[in-house]
Write a structure and sequence with these properties.
Structural class: mainly alpha
Distance between the termini: 24 Å
Number of helices: 20
Strand order of the largest sheet: 1-2
Strand content: under 5%
Shape: globular
Number of strands: 2
Order of helices and strands: HHHHHHHHHHHHHHHHEEHHHH
Largest sheet: 2 strands, antiparallel
Helix content: 55-70%
Length: 490
């Protein structure tokens, strides 16, 4: 007898079941730490309960599609699945924090959102936190950075997987075969983490700290195991290793492949790398000068701080080598804000508007000026170099680009105003919410364990919107509302 074709919401629930099982495994992974820190076995219950529960619920939902022929998801239902996957991951992963009794629901959701969105803002006091929870935070950043969808598609081959991966905000289909693409991406990130860990250890960082910081650097997450972040180690070699890992994490994976294959010319022509060079030439000297003139710090140390904070802000990682941004000049802090808003490369683990979109906007300004001074009958073809090839940019591409930028800036303004309503200055509010929306993690001191509930939820929503880039969320919510009103849910 031929199996019934599964489609619509039963198909979505079946796929969600697969991911819930994977989420359960992710929650159980920190238990490995117990083998090295036996005294923390008492913490195991905080992870076993939500992890096993997620696997059980996932197994039950998987029955919708198990052994059955599956139809294709309808238009925009992939966005619904992505939204449910991310909400489920954040919700399930908040329970280890809640079960400790040290964090309320808002704080726990904030921390798990910060982890999976690779932001790095935290309500956790790392000086009082056990190794198992510190590892859990890093694990969330790893899976959130490479993409929750990618994790599943690397384990099973599914014809719909790469479309979901692209919907999640990535564009790197490296190979025709989905399974090979997924495993290649995962393999590269794992290699970077392992190599980074080794270098950290060589330069004096403890093994546990080294592994966690390597994960946080490559995933551009920024969670640290020490309260002073990278600045705790006072080591130039460690800072250099961190800068390299952050740049790798914030660069589109296709550029990595070009570099590994020796295609340096094609890689360097890529529009985002050109913008990165221009931004460094413009911002780093001025940031350094502002420190020297305002704090009377030495030129050498000012260069060290300027370069590191430029990279950590632009890559949206959020590591710090300064004790407090409050002590730094306004010009420096506003430069950091601009860099956090710009963000890293499209299709990378970084957040922000993304360098590609900023580059297109800048290019369009030059194209517009060129068209105004050119002869009316002259026809120009607008293109940019993307991955070594000239790519034509249509009017629709430009309109979509500006729409995303305007939406991003609109949310930024709203979030900033909410922060100012709680008595924070405009500069501090803009800094803190830019960090949340850009999934950066740098803090000027507003967000913490005792922050007002409204500010924690504002930051949580900002981090979530910044990671999934607005349209996926808006499309998914609109589609669900329409399906409910038209009684198409069942």
């Amino acid at each position: 007898m031929k199996n019934k074709l599964v489609s619509g919401y039963p198909l979505i629930l079946g796929y969600l079941g697969l991911f819930l099982m994977m989420i359960g495994i992710i929650v159980l992974l920190p238990l490995i730490v117990i083998f090295f820190y036996h005294i923390e076995i008492t913490e195991a219950k905080y992870f076993i309960l939500p992890g096993v529960f997620s696997i059980i619920i996932g197994s039950l939902l998987y029955l919708f599609i198990r052994g059955k022929e599956r139809d294709r998801l309808d238009r925009h239902q992939d966005a619904i699945l992505i939204l449910w996957i991310w909400v489920s991951a954040i919700f399930v992963s908040s329970f280890p924090f809640i079960l400790t009794g040290d964090y309320n629901f808002t704080q726990a959701i904030f921390e798990s959102t910060s982890g999976f969105s690779t932001t790095g803002l935290t309500v956790v006091d790392v000086t009082q936190t056990t190794h198992i929870f510190l590892m859990f935070r890093s694990i969330m950043q790893f899976f959130g950075g490479v993409g929750l969808v990618l994790v599943l598609t690397s384990a099973i081959s599914d014809r719909y997987g790469m479309r979901l991966y692209n919907t999640e905000g990535h564009t790197d289909k490296l190979l025709p075969n989905l399974l090979k693409s997924a495993r290649l991406i995962l393999s590269l990130y794992i290699i970077y983490i392992l190599v980074g860990t080794i270098f950290y250890i060589v330069f004096g960082m403890p093994v546990f700290d080294a592994f966690n910081h390597a994960i946080a650097s490559v995933s551009t997450g920024g969670f640290s195991t020490v309260s002073s972040s990278i600045g705790y180690y006072h080591s130039i070699p460690i800072e250099i290793v961190t800068i390299v890992l952050m740049l790798l994490g914030s660069t589109n994976i296709i550029i990595h492949i070009f570099l590994l294959k020796g295609k340096f010319k094609s890689a360097l022509k890529h529009i985002e790398l050109k913008l990165l060079f221009v931004l460094s030439v413009i911002f780093i000297p001025f940031m350094v000068v502002s420190i020297v003139t305002s704090t009377q710090d030495s030129l050498g140390n000012s260069i060290r701080i300027g370069i590191f904070q430029f990279v950590t802000a632009l890559t949206t990682t959020g590591f710090q080598t300064v004790d407090s941004f409050q002590s730094l000049p306004n010009f420096f802090n506003f430069s950091v804000i601009i860099l956090m808003i710009i963000g890293g490369g499209i299709g990378s683990t970084a957040g922000g508007i993304k360098q590609y979109r900023i580059a297109i906007a800048i290019k369009h300004l030059s194209w517009n000026f060129r068209d105004r001074i050119s002869h009316k009958k002259t026809i120009h073809t607008d293109f940019v170099n993307r991955f070594g090839k000239n790519t034509v940019i249509s009017d629709q591409d430009v309109n979509n680009n500006y729409a995303h930028i305007m939406m991003y800036l609109s949310v930024l303004v709203i979030g900033t105003l909410i922060f100012t309503a709680y008595g924070n200055s405009l500069r501090d509010s803009l800094f803190e919410f830019s960090s949340a929306l850009g999934t950066v993690g740098l803090s000027i001191g507003i967000i913490g364990y005792n922050s007002p509930v409204v500010l924690l939820w504002t930051s949580t929503i900002g981090m979530f919107l910044g990671r999934l880039e607005f349209y996926v969320i808006f499309i998914a919510l609109t589609k669900m509302i329409l399906d409910i009103s038209n009684k198409k849910v069942l």
